[in-house]
Amino acid sequence: MAKSQNTTRIQQRNRAIILDAALDVFSQNGFRGSTVDQIAKAAGLSKPNLLYYYPTKESIFKAVLSDLLDTWLDPLRAMDHDGEPIEEIQAYVARKIEMSRDFPRESRLFAHEIIQGAPRMLETLSTELKDLVDEKTLVIERWMNEGKLNRIHSRHLIFSIWSLTQHYADFEVQVRTLMGDEDPYDAAPAFLETLYHRLLTPTG
């Protein structure tokens, strides 16, 4: 029994090592530019050993994406329909900038896949993500109709949040080069909070 449990632990550990290495490789090169050999080398495993766990590059990528999608959608899911509108949207912005800081590889992998036409994510984009965005835009529209938010285009609001927060991860080399010794994440949260507070606060 102990031997079986030990084997399971080793398998779990190796799968985790493979997926972490794959995330590194895929986030740098995209799906098309990555190879099983690169992933095996990054994982410190032989190619046959890696293929024992995941028989194809596609199966590795799908496993990485499965973990990524929940991480990606959770910040928007957390927006409370019954909360204070400006606070809820600013909290969403804060969660997204934290994701760029803490999960830059995941952000870059997502960007690579979208740029390539999302062939392995299109179904999720057109169902799970679209349903979630539809739900939240209705909430934002309700808040606007109640006079709690300045009237703006709700979908473009969400797109702008994605653009302004994910930029820090997807273009990290450029951002850090231009910021010099200053950590971009020191001032980014306060800047974005001010920006969206001014945009969202009802006028008149």
Question: Could you explain how this protein is built, in words?
Answer:
- The chain folds into two domains: 1-55, Orthogonal Bundle (Arc Repressor Mutant, subunit A), CATH 1.10.10.60; 65-200, Tetracycline Repressor, domain 2.
- The mean pLDDT is 92.
- It has helices at residues 2-29, 36-43, 47-53, 57-77, 85-102, 104-115, 122-145, 154-170, 172-179, 184-200.
- With 204 residues, it is an all-alpha fold.
List the helices and strands and how they pair.
Layout: H1 2-29, H2 36-43, H3 47-53, H4 57-77, H5 85-102, H6 104-115, H7 122-145, H8 154-170, H9 172-179, H10 184-200
Helix pairs in contact: 1-2, 1-4, 1-6, 2-3, 5-8, 5-10, 6-8
Supply the key terms.
Tetracycline Repressor, domain 2, mainly alpha, 204 residues, 2 domains, Arc Repressor Mutant, subunit A
- Report the span from N to C terminus: 72 Å
Shape: elongated
| Total number of distinct structural domains | 2
What is the level-2 CATH architecture name of the largest domain? Orthogonal Bundle
Strand segment tally? 0
Gyration radius, to the nearest Å?
A: 20 Å
**Share of helical residues:** over 70%
What is the averaged pLDDT score?
Answer: 92
Detail the poorly predicted runs.
none
- Reading off the top of the CATH hierarchy, the class of the largest domain is best stated as Mainly Alpha
What is the helix/strand order?
A: HHHHHHHHHH
